């Protein structure tokens, strides 16, 4: 669970971030727009605050203060991607280490809200390079690292589960194929046995040849018997 401190802005919307670049309008108007935006922001009227900060940036488009506060207003509207772009601008332009640390801290929060864990970790590390003693940034960095570790473990577990599912599916498909092959083999064997049990049909020509052969064999046997009988009668007559 995220600590309430994780996404607090620590009064940074009223930070003394300096202005850079040329002011296109009246400095008094610029400060008036920023003060009005801060008042609206503190009253949680963040949409109006966003408009006030944009009007301030129309006067001084390179103001780190107005850009940072605009990022806060966008963040509170859950426009995290837009907020990240504003915090990136401040982090790149700021010369003061405290200003950089605050911008990188909120940039890390914006990434964390979008579940861009590695990007949030990198931002928190940058914040700590500029302000090593910021306890909130240390907490957020630790939290993001734990989330990333858990995410990687879940991915590894999912990959292992997918591999196991694929292996089980392949084994099941192989088993089904083996069963099908065995069934086909059993069916072929049964058909062969049935064919062996059934009398084989012969053509009329083959049947006639078989009958002729049998008749010829009977004729030869009869002639042999007749010859044997004649021999027996001759021997008897001779003895007489």
Walk me through the structure.
78% of the residues lie in helices and 0% in strands. The longest helix has 63 residues, at 135-197. Helix 1 runs antiparallel to helix 2 and helix 4 (80-93) runs antiparallel to helix 5 (97-113). It has eight helices and no strands. With 240 residues, it is mainly α. Mean pLDDT is 83; it is low at 1-16 and 234-240. The chain folds into two domains: 8-151, Serine Threonine Protein Phosphatase 5, Tetratricopeptide repeat; 206-235.
Helix and strand layout, with pairings?
Elements lengths: L26 H16 L3 H14 L4 H13 L3 H14 L3 H17 L3 H14 L4 H63 L6 H36 L1
In short:
The protein has helices spanning 27-42, 46-59, 64-76, 80-93, 97-113, 117-130, 135-197, 204-239. The protein is mainly α and 240 residues long.
Which properties best describe this structure?
240 residues, mainly alpha, Serine Threonine Protein Phosphatase 5, Tetratricopeptide repeat, 2 domains, rod-shaped, disordered N terminus
